C-alpha cells in the first residue's frame, strides 16, 4: 500500500496541520469541559447566577417585564431568552425559569409566577404556554443600575446584541439563594441562607476586614432552607464555612401527639430541603406493607396551601419512640452535602464563607465605583450646561440681541461662542432656550439645580477618592435591602445528642430467630413461648411456604451483633434487630433483603460477636468432617457482601460454628450417631481461606451434623436430638478425649425409630430448650425433662411429630439465674 502523500493544492496544504489524535482529543475535551464549567453549570461568585438564569433575568429586564408590569406568557420570555442570548433549547430555559419561581426551591424567589410551576410532590410545571411570569421585586435588586456602566458586557452568541457578563447584584445572591450544578469533573451544592444574616455578615466584613470565619458565623447561623426543617448539630456547618465542604444533616419538623384513645400519632409539618413529599410517603407506605416498619396503622397527607401536614397514625400498643426513630433513620432525615464551588475570575474555586463574601464585596465595590463615575460624568455634563445657561441669563439682553441679529442658528451659535467662550453643548442648549426661562423664577430654579449638581459632584468625588466612603455606600445599600426584604429564619437547630438512634430505642430482649431453607427469616420474643412437657406437639411457629422447611432456630438478644455463616463458607454480619419481628404464624422476610446471599446459599450457623474476647477463635466444622480454627479478630471488618470464612471442597458445606478460647475440647457428632472428642489444639489456627484438617473419619454416607465446645463438665451434659423427635442427655465426661480423625464413640442409636441425629448441644439441668420442626411447629421444654442416660442408648420422646415432619433445629436458653457465659458462646447457632 502506497504511503505517498496525495497532491493537494498549495492553498489547501498551507491550512493542513498534522496533529496526533490523542493531543486533539485531549485539547478538545478540555475546551468542552471549560465551556460547561464556565458557560453552563457553575454560578459566578459575584451575582450567584449561572448564565441561563442571568440571561433570563436580563431578557425580562430588557423587555420591561418587571415587578410593576403585568405578567407575560412564559413561552414569550423563553423565546426572547433563547433567540437573543441562550441558544440551548427551550425546555432547559423554562426549567430554570420555573425553579426561580418555586418558593420551595428558592429561599427568595426571583420570579413571580402565575399558574402551575410545580409542587413539592415532584409534579412538573405546566407547559410554558399555560404559565405567566414577571420579575419579583428582589430580582430587580440584582439588575439595579445595570444601565450605568456598572458591569462589563460581551457580545451575544451571534454578535447582534450585548449581554452583561455579570449582574450588579445589590445583595450576595450566591449565599442567599444557593446553587447546585454538575460540571465536568466537579460539582457545586451551595445551600440557601437567610438574607438578613448574610447582609449582617457582609456588613461585619466591611467594618472589620480582619474578621474570621467564626466572627462571621456570629451572624450567619447556618443554612436557611425554604422548606424549614432542622439542622442537626453545628459542627458540620462550621466545617462547611471554614473549608467550603461539609455534610449537614437536615431533619424534618414533627411532633408526637398523644390521643385520648391511647394511640399516638406523629404529625410532620416541615420536610428537609429537596425532599419529594409524595415519593417519601410512598416509600413509608411500602416499608409498612413489607413489615420493615411496624406499628403504623394509617398514613395520611393532609397538606394544603397553608403548609405541609403528614399524619402517621400509630397502632394502639405501638411504641411511638421506636416508630419515630425508624422514620428518622430512613425517611425524615437527609444529608445536604455542601460544596461551595463557584467561578472566581472565570476559574472554579472552593470557597470559605469569608472568601465568598470578600469576592462579593470586591464586586460590589467595583459596581458602586463605576456607577459613581458614571453619575459623576453625567453630573459634570449637567453642571457644564447649567453654567452656560446661568451665563446666558446674566447677559440675557446681549444674548437675545445676538440671536435676533444672526441670519440663522449656526451664525448665532458661532457669535455666542466667540462672545462668551461657550462650548458647543452650551450654545446648543442656549439657542433652544424658551423666552419663559428668562423669568426670575426660572433663573432661581436653574441656580438651585446648579448648586445641587455641584453638591452631588462633590459627594461623588469623595466616594471615588475615599475607600471608606465607598464602603459606607455599599453598607448603606445593603442595609436598605435588608430592611426591605429580610425575614425570620425558617430552619432551626437541634442538638446532635446521638440519642435518636434506632438501636437505643429498640427494646432489649431475648428473641428466637427462625431461618428456613429458602432463607426466610424472622424473630419472635422468647417470652411468647411457655415451657411445655416433654413429648408435646408444640405450637405453630411459622407459616412455612410450600416446598420450604425450617433449617435453623437460635436465640439472640435484639442488640447483639451476629455473624451469620452459610453453607457456602461465607460469613455476614447482622444486627439482630434488623431481622423483622413477626408473629408466630408469619412466614418471615426473605433474608436476601438483609444479606447479599447467592442462589442456594443458606444460613447454617450463627455466633454472637458481643461475646468475643482476646485470644478467642472461631472453630468451624464441615459436613465432610473438616475442622478449622481462625482467630476471631479476622472477622471484625465484614463487608455487606460477606467475606470468606472457610474454603470448602466441592460438595462440602459448613454446618456448625463455635467460639473457643484454646482450652476447650471439640466434640463432633454425626448423623449416624457417632461422636468424637479431641483437644481443639489439634486443629491449629489457620487463615480464613484455609480448608482445615480432618476432624472425624466418616463411614459410608455418614456426615457431621453439629459440634460442641466442651470444657468444665460439672453439671454439663451432651444433649442429642434425632430427626424423628427422640433425644437424650449424657454426661460429657462419658466422652473420653481421643485423637482427631478417628471414628469416635457411639453416642446414640439411630435405628428406624430414632432416625438420624439432627442436633447436639451442651446443656445444664436448669436450661430450657427451643425445638422447631421442619414444618414450623415450635416448643419450649426444660432440659431436665429429658432423661439422663448413658451413651449408645435409644433416648426418649422429646417432640411428638405429625406425618413426615422432622426436627429441624434445637437451641438452648441458658439458665438466667446462674453463670451462663460459657454456654452463651456455645448456644449460638
Count of DSSP strands? 42
Number of domains: 4
Q: What does the radius of gyration come to? A: 42 Å
Mean pLDDT: 87
Which residues form runs of ≥5 with pLDDT under 50? 817-829
Strand content: 15-25%
**Any idea of the CATH class of the largest domain?**
Mainly Beta
**What's the architecture of the largest domain, going by CATH?**
6 Propeller
Number of helices: 20
Give the fraction of residues assigned to helices.
25-40%
Q: Which fold name corresponds to the CATH topology of the largest domain?
A: Neuraminidase
Q: State the fourth-level CATH superfamily of the largest domain.
A: DNA gyrase/topoisomerase IV, subunit A, C-terminal
| Shape field | elongated
Distance between the termini: 74 Å
The major beta sheet can be summarized as:
5 strands, mixed
| Helix vs. strand class | alpha+beta
How would you describe this structure to a colleague?
By secondary structure, this protein is an alpha+beta fold. Strands 20, 21, 39, 40 and 42 form a 5-stranded mixed β-sheet that branches. The chain is elongated and about 150 Å long. The model is unreliable at 817-829 (pLDDT under 50).
Topology (SSEs and partners):
Layout: H1 10-13, H2 21-41, H3 51-63, E1 72-73, H4 74-84, H5 90-101, E2 111-114, E3 132-135, H6 137-143, E4 153-155, E5 162-164, H7 173-177, E6 179-182, E7 187-190, H8 195-207, H9 213-217, E8 230-232, H10 235-243, E9 245-251, E10 253-258, E11 264-270, H11 277-290, E12 296-301, E13 310-314, H12 320-330, E14 333-339, E15 341-344, E16 347-350, H13 353-394, H14 396-405, H15 409-420, H16 424-431, H17 440-465, H18 467-485, E17 492-494, H19 502-505, E18 510-516, E19 520-525, E20 531-532, E21 539-540, E22 550-557, E23 561-566, E24 570-575, E25 589-590, E26 603-608, E27 617-622, E28 626-631, E29 643-644, E30 654-660, E31 665-670, E32 674-679, E33 693-694, E34 704-710, E35 717-722, E36 726-731, E37 745-746, E38 757-763, E39 768-773, E40 777-782, E41 796-797, E42 807-813, H20 821-827
Parallel strand pairs: 8-17, 20-40
Antiparallel strand pairs: 1-3, 2-3, 4-5, 6-7, 8-9, 9-14, 10-11, 11-13, 12-13, 15-16, 18-19, 18-22, 19-25, 21-40, 23-24, 23-26, 24-29, 27-28, 27-30, 28-33, 31-32, 31-34, 32-37, 35-36, 35-38, 36-41, 39-40, 39-42
Helix pairs in contact: 3-4, 4-5, 8-13, 8-18, 13-16, 13-17, 13-18, 14-15, 15-16, 17-18
Amino acid at each position: 500500500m502506497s504511503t505517498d502523500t496525495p497532491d493537494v493544492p498549495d492553498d489547501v496544504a498551507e491550512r493542513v496541520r498534522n496533529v496526533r489524535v490523542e493531543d486533539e482529543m485531549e485539547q478538545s475535551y478540555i475546551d468542552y469541559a471549560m465551556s460547561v464549567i464556565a458557560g453552563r453549570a457553575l454560578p459566578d461568585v459575584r451575582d450567584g447566577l449561572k448564565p441561563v438564569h442571568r440571561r433570563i433575568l436580563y431578557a425580562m429586564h430588557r423587555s420591561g417585564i418587571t415587578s410593576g408590569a403585568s405578567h407575560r406568557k412564559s413561552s414569550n420570555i423563553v423565546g426572547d431568552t433563547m433567540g437573543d442570548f441562550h441558544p440551548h433549547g427551550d425546555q432547559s430555559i423554562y426549567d430554570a425559569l420555573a425553579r426561580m419561581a418555586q418558593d420551595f426551591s428558592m429561599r427568595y424567589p426571583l420570579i413571580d409566577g402565575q399558574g402551575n410551576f410545580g409542587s413539592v410532590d415532584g409534579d412538573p410545571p405546566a407547559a410554558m404556554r399555560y404559565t405567566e411570569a414577571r420579575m419579583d421585586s428582589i430580582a430587580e435588586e440584582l439588575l439595579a443600575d445595570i444601565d450605568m456602566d456598572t458591569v462589563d458586557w460581551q457580545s451575544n452568541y451571534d454578535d447582534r446584541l450585548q449581554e452583561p457578563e455579570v449582574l450588579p447584584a445589590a445583595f450576595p445572591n450566591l449565599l442567599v439563594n444557593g446553587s447546585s450544578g454538575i460540571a465536568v469533573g466537579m460539582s457545586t451544592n451551595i445551600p440557601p441562607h437567610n438574607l438578613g444574616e448574610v447582609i449582617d455578615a457582609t456588613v461585619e466584613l466591611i467594618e472589620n476586614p480582619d474578621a474570621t470565619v467564626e466572627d462571621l458565623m456570629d451572624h450567619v447561623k447556618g443554612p436557611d432552607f425554604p422548606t424549614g426543617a432542622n439542622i442537626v448539630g453545628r459542627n458540620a456547618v462550621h466545617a462547611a464555612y471554614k473549608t467550603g465542604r461539609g455534610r449537614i444533616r437536615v431533619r424534618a419538623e414533627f411532633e408526637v401527639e398523644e390521643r385520648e384513645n391511647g394511640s399516638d400519632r406523629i404529625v410532620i409539618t416541615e420536610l428537609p430541603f429537596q425532599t419529594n413529599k409524595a415519593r417519601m410517603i410512598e416509600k413509608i407506605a411500602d416499608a409498612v406493607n413489607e413489615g420493615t416498619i411496624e406499628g403504623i396503622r394509617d398514613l395520611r397527607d393532609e397538606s394544603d396551601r397553608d403548609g405541609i401536614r403528614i399524619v402517621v397514625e400509630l397502632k394502639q400498643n405501638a411504641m411511638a419512640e421506636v416508630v419515630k426513630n425508624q422514620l428518622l433513620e430512613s425517611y425524615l432525615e437527609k444529608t445536604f452535602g455542601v460544596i461551595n464551588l463557584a467561578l472566581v475570575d472565570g476559574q472554579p474555586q472552593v470557597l470559605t464563607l469569608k472568601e465568598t463574601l470578600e469576592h462579593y464585596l470586591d464586586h460590589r465595590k467595583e459596581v458602586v465605583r463605576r456607577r459613581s463615575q458614571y453619575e459623576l460624568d453625567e453630573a459634570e455634563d449637567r453642571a457644564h450646561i447649567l453654567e452656560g445657561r446661568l451665563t446666558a441669563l446674566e447677559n440675557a439682553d446681549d444674548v437675545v440681541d445676538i440671536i435676533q441679529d444672526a441670519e440663522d442658528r449656526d451664525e448665532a451659535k458661532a457669535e455666542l461662542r466667540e462672545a462668551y467662550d461657550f462650548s458647543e453643548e452650551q450654545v446648543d442648549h442656549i439657542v433652544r432656550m424658551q423666552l419663559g426661562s428668562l423669568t426670575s423664577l426660572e433663573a432661581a430654579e436653574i441656580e438651585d439645580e446648579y448648586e445641587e449638581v455641584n453638591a452631588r459632584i462633590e459627594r461623588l468625588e469623595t466616594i471615588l477618592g475615599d475607600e471608606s466612603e465607598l464602603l459606607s455606600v455599599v453598607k448603606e445599600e445593603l442595609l436598605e435591602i435588608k430592611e426591605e426584604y429580610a425575614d425570620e429564619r425558617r430552619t432551626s437547630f437541634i442538638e446532635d445528642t446521638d440519642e435518636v438512634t434506632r438501636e437505643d430505642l429498640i427494646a432489649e430482649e431475648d428473641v428466637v430467630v427462625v431461618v428456613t431453607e429458602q432463607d426466610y427469616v424472622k424473630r419472635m420474643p422468647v417470652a411468647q413461648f411457655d415451657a411445655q412437657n416433654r413429648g408435646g406437639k408444640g405450637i405453630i411457629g411459622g407459616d412455612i411456604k410450600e416446598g420450604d422447611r425450617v433449617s435453623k432456630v437460635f436465640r439472640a438478644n435484639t442488640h447483639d451483633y451476629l455473624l451469620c455463616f452459610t453453607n457456602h463458607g461465607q460469613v455476614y454480619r447482622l444486627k439482630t434487630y434488623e431481622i423483622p419481628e413477626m408473629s408466630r404464624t408469619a412466614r418471615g422476610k426473605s433474608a436476601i433483603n438483609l444479606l447479599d446471599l447467592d442462589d442456594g446459599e443458606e444460613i447454617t450457623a450463627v455466633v454472637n460477636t458481643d461475646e468475643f474476647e482476646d485470644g478467642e477463635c472461631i472453630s468451624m466444622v464441615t459436613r465432610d468432617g473438616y475442622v478449622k480454627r481462625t482467630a476471631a479478630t479476622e472477622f471484625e471488618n465484614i463487608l455487606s457482601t460477606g467475606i470468606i470464612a472457610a474454603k470448602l471442597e466441592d460438595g462440602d458445606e459448613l454446618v456448625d460454628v463455635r467460639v473457643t478460647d484454646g482450652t476447650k475440647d471439640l466434640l463432633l457428632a454425626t448423623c449416624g450417631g457417632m461422636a468424637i472428642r479431641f483437644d481443639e489444639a489439634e486443629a491449629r489456627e489457620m487463615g480464613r481461606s484455609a480448608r482445615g484438617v480432618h476432624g472425624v473419619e466418616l463411614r459410608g454416607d455418614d456426615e457431621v451434623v453439629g459440634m460442641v465446645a466442651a470444657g468444665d463438665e460439672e453439671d454439663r451434659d451432651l444433649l442429642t436430638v434425632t430427626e424423628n423427635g427422640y433425644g437424650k442427655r449424657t454426661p460429657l465426661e462419658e466422652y473420653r478425649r481421643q485423637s482427631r480423625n478417628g471414628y469416635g464413640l457411639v453416642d446414640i442409636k439411630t435405628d428406624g425409630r430414632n432416625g438420624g441425629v439432627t442436633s447436639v448441644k451442651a446443656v445444664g439441668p436448669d436450661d430450657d430448650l427451643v425445638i422447631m420442626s421442619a414444618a414450623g411447629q415450635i416448643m419450649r421444654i426444660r432440659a431436665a425433662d429429658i432423661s439422663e442416660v448413658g451413651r449408645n442408648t435409644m433416648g426418649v420422646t422429646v417432640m411428638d411429630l405429625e406425618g413426615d415432619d422432622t426436627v429441624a433445629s434445637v437451641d438452648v436458653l441458658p439458665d438466667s439465674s446462674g453463670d451462663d457465659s460459657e454456654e452463651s458462646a456455645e448456644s449460638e447457632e
